[in-house]
């Protein structure tokens, strides 16, 4: 293990060194760098910007594809047999009988791989040919992405995609800011800002200066760390530090920035996104691996059987030559030589026991099931005209065995759309009205209204227009003033530019209700209030950070009064209220109702500040803002002084829309024992919010975070209970019984935890550190939640009991010596995560997503599926056993690298539960039946060898062997593989494969005949008084539990294979020896004891037996099933008549020796009786055994059924004394939509001023050439929100009342009267005292429910969170250019110092 750590440290030190040098505008300098490839062979160190994600090219396709195909054991086996058949001395069958099918099989698979790879080539060509502007000489010219080189200076415009990793040099925005959307990299659609160095911002102000720029960037080697970069710019004898805030990564999209300029430092496969993409892996199914092992087993068995038969030939031929010495002259070879050749002859003769036709037919079955997926109209998405598509045809059966689904969040689970849904003002809830679509727009009176705003509430609009209620007025005024949105006017329309969509939704809501945000300057903000323009002087902006969870603005009104407006998370706002009356209680109930509806809540409050108080506070604020040390802490304390004794105005509720059907899909997948993990690059709070919205998380779950996970894993390590052993499954079942858990972790934690899976050195800053401001907390933020502490204490108690389990320590000590500590830690983590109902991984890079998938595959040995829609999901999609790409708004990279393409996440339910399960059932039945029918016919060759002197003489006619798998038994097998469905018992609703149904009618005869030609064809008629019912697509969705059979490999495994072998062997024994018994000591014209007649009877008996078996096992009877059996028998009749005709015998007697053999035999009635006897003896015992076994098999006990289902129980805890404020599990949104420092950019004027020295020649013409491909796509806003990480039961949570219990505004009056008695615990205990409180807006019954729910309220801990990286853009600046303010980065450095 030490060597591994040393190697990682060495690689880290190597990559951390500044060995990457790039000089601007100097391709000759950059081309001189070489790197060693092999021996003396060197190549250019810096790659071009061209990418190739395809697997093959013109020269490598044939050898590489053949190499991959011959990795299959079956192909190697067939190749060996073909080689042996080419030797005349040992060949018993013509060489082309196997060569032609093998070539056909290889061509089919190669064509499939070629079609998939052509799609990747087309995608690469589209990306490589995207246009961009490159500085060539003294002007910017349009060039293709593939022509970019390291050191080039490129010009990008609004909505452009960044073609390579760039160092931002300058932009037309103030202070050379550049706003980017990184949805295709980390899944976040809220804007982030990047900023150029001050030196390049001031110096590079014209194209001429850009062309003369000769700066050199010295930085780290290319790596996959998406959020980390270290380097410096050397220019004019000085070095200027660079970090990730100066870098534009490939795949980002420029937003709200007219023009920006960058220097290419990493190109092509050296870019960070390409370093995270991974390689294309050959994906094979579990059944494929199993068949490979079975082929090896069959081959070894054939070798043993051939050896045994050859040994019999050795003794037989010596005895024969001794008795018949007169024939010795004809046998010139020695006995040993003839025995050697006979061995290979037997091996060739019995090689048909591994039928190549099975593999060829399987390809057509895979293709047919893929076509059914493509044709399924229920997975067609009409808005995008996008049907489902199976890009891979070899993984269909594995769709029925998935146990883990790894999903992206942004664009996969969500629509990236924010909508203002509800608000609560003074305790009155205003929701959307149910109105007719043709109703007139209520906002026509407002010329500034956004016509796309869908919220309608006539009573709220009337209250706003009346302008009588001060709280209503202040509510909308706060939304119009307290924000960080920038505004610009374009085509006489106001355009808001926000860092997060929810912030924009709030300001737009205020705009439509008459409070229009018009403009802002460094120290003022202009708002039009119901037609009156008012200018507010901004006295202070108290910025957001992860500890404050709120934002405040201190303004002076036109009348001269000073007001403080605050909005933020409900937990922090309620702690700072001056008084708490019925308005606060009803608002809290409304917040709980909003949370139950998975809406993102936000609390609004304000207060009026005395001038004397402000003057004293302003002096302290000035002193704190100029501190050189602990400035942020000091400012926080000053802000805390001002943000006290607030008056609550109300709350807002924003809907972060999920895709249609996401909740139902996740519910069905969980019922089908499929675990869903969310892997996203977005912030933790946003991902957890979506987890609650899509019901992946619930309020009664224990949500484990990093500290709890480390404590659990430490307990694992101490007891060594996570290691392999005989009692591993028992230990897993005993871990945390009756506890519903969920894991929420981030990328840094995974980076620390999972060291041995990492394929690159660790980041420079390796330890997981909290924010600099999280070491101290505000009032009440450090209290531990009682419920969480109680649950965790029971959790440790459970682990302590587990550690004392006898017999585990010794067993684990032995295994611990063979595993590294990292491997044990990883295995412990996977064991813990696998027992959680949900796992959410946040802030993970694309490579980390792939490593998580690989980790689960490594330790759980399960089938995994990854689904995503962006380039950041490509590596995960490639690594998983099955990759599903969504044709979303983040491009087509995920689609081009996926195995299946869907338009919506909800279609995944049908893909797995219907098509996946059907494909698995069909392929398993196909394999079992094919093995049975092959052995039932070919094993008669072995029995015949005992009566042919062990001479390897074929029993059957050559043409019967040729057409047996081609025509005589093909159609029923194809029907099973394409159209078969499993039945369930109509009484007990259990699938027969469980073998636990007691219903006597649950036999294979309980089938029906209809017209269900395919999953997409006409629906078959309903069953008539039949117990077994076919599981239709709708029924499969209603019974997700049926999916478990595929996860447990119940339908095809080694035991099923042995059953098929035994069944086939028994059938061959009956057909051969019963026929032999019937012909024993017989002679005369009616005898069929001659070789040809005997061969015909055995062959026909075998054919009828396997046809009878297929009739018994088909559960889904249609016209096609009847026709397949009928035509199979017809083919036998026609082809036998043709191959045994006299004219063919005349042409070639050796090729067609069986002249009229069938006709002669079948014309004798005793032969028909023998065939009937063979079929009866081989079929009736098996049928009787199946019926008796089902009748005697005990049904599964209810206890096992309940144990198999996910437990809904949780550890119950004693409720503690009532603590009012910290009782909810609601999720506030605002505090996680911004990045600290944005308010400073506004107050300092950094983003409000035109960049100095931006000349007209810097505004490069960005008209894209008409012949180039346009790459602009539709912008999709998205923003995270907050949640409380502590789960609890709903009956213990008074605030979560149904929305129906919160009276709508239409039923409420305009005033509220409250008895001013405190809400003490004593008051709550008495129902009579509770009923004394009266509300004009709400009924008494609601008050009683409200107060009863307060009794179960509990407190919870305030969890700190890291601030997101987002900053909204602005285009509006004053024309004056004065002294340069500090940049955000300089301000941050100064604050830290």
From TrEMBL:
Protein name: Phospholipid-transporting ATPase IK
Gene of this entry: ATP8B3
